[in-house]
Design goal:
The protein has 234 residues and is of the alpha/beta class. The chain has one domain: LmbE-like (Rossmann fold), CATH 3.40.50. Helices cover 40% and strands 18% of the residues. It contains 7 helices and 7 strands; from the N terminus they run E-H-E-H-E-H-E-H-H-E-E-H-H-E. It has a 7-stranded mixed beta sheet with strand order 3-2-1-4-5-7-6, with helices on both faces. Helix 3 (92-105) packs across helix 4. The chain is globular and about 50 Å long. The mean pLDDT is 95.
């Protein structure tokens, strides 16, 4: 129905990826009445220099941090797929889990990570695989009932996503003005204490404000997050 809120699903590799990449967009869209869910592929159990922490301990910490960050931004719920950090593979099992989440949430928009290498920085392998599997799950796998037919037995019908937003590309064509939401993005990032040793310093906030200003400059926007937007055939 035309008056139903827009439904959004993000698919990322690690706890904190969503806040880093597009936390301002999530905050803005949630305030505008969109309903937002996260799907996070790995448990982030390797991302520390603290040798006193075991992977299970770190995974538990990072899940708690992610739930706090999602609450800060106004997210409905978080799906944790629980794969080990650094061990994400492009498997049918992983694809099926993402397809299941899409069929549960039934999003109008899916946001994910750029699966292709870029020249500005080295892309984490988990990021590339999460992005590729998310794109494949959107089209054609979530759409066609003969893919993962076991979902039908669970009461999950096929679903056609309307728009795909890809973050972190060098060919962005869509901008979201986050000028009024940069502080919420920073607040959400500060929830990830295990990853942000300098979270309370002025330099921490300034770093993200400068990045947002740099992203918005080509579009004439004070602070922005940018995406490659793909409209999918219905």
């Amino acid at each position: 129905m035309a008056d139903e809120p827009v439904r959004v699903l993000t698919v990322t590799a690690h706890p904190d990826d969503t806040e880093f990449g597009f936390g301002g967009t999530i905050a803005r869209w949630a305030d505008e009445g969109r309903l937002i869910w996260y799907c996070i592929a790995t448990n982030g159990d390797k991302g520390t220099s603290d040798r006193s922490l075991t992977p299970p301990q770190l995974a538990a910490i990072r899940q708690k941090e992610q739930l706090a960050a999602a609450k800060t931004l106004g997210v409905q719920d978080v799906f944790f797929l629980g794969y080990p950090d650094g061990e994400l593979e492009e498997t049918r099992e992983f694809l099926g889990k993402v397809v299941r989440v899409i069929r549960q949430v039934r999003p109008d928009i899916v946001i994910t990570m750029n699966p292709y290498p870029v020249t500005r920085f080295v892309q984490h392998r988990d990021h590339r695989i999460a992005g590729q599997v998310a794109i494949d799950a959107v089209y054609p796998f979530a759409r066609d009932h003969l893919h993962f037919p076991e979902h039908l037995a669970e009461g999950l019908e096929p679903h056609k996503v309307g728009e795909l937003y890809i973050s972190g590309t060098e060919s962005s064509d869509t901008v979201v003005d986050i000028s009024g939401y940069i502080d919420r993005k920073i607040e959400a990032l500060r929830c990830h204490r295990s990853q942000m040793q300098n979270a309370d310093t002025p330099d921490f906030a300034e770093r993200f404000k400068m990045n947002a200003a740099r992203s918005g400059e080509p579009f004439g926007v004070p602070m922005a997050e940018t995406f490659r937007r793909i409209e999918l055939r219905r």
